[in-house]
């Protein structure tokens, strides 16, 4: 078991989901156990634009007692008046998280929608800083 702590720093190159205006992205971070069940959730505040940054404590996540076979899911949403839209997501296995705080820039995948030229485009990137602390249980 371990504790994963970190912070969402920024998202860049996010797709524009609104016909008029900019996206209002926010990030939901979920801790997933080895069986695929959600065991924790944290979220950032919503920002405006396709290149956004979060400062201070507004985008911190902390998941205690997470198993090394689990994962963290970073899903970027666009805040809407109706149902929110997913802009992109990435899953990071816990066993790949470093013991020292490390900044990672991760791809949010490829957009399923075609652009005007008939091509699929990237969903942008998310940059996070995180580390893992292992729990030692002595008998």
UniProtKB/TrEMBL annotation:
CDD domains for the chain: C2
Pfam families in the record: C2
Domain C2 stretches: 1-108
Signal peptide: none
Matches recorded under InterPro entries: C2_dom, C2_domain_sf
UniProt-recorded name of the protein: C2 domain-containing protein
Species in which this protein is naturally found: Oxyrrhis marina (Dinoflagellate)
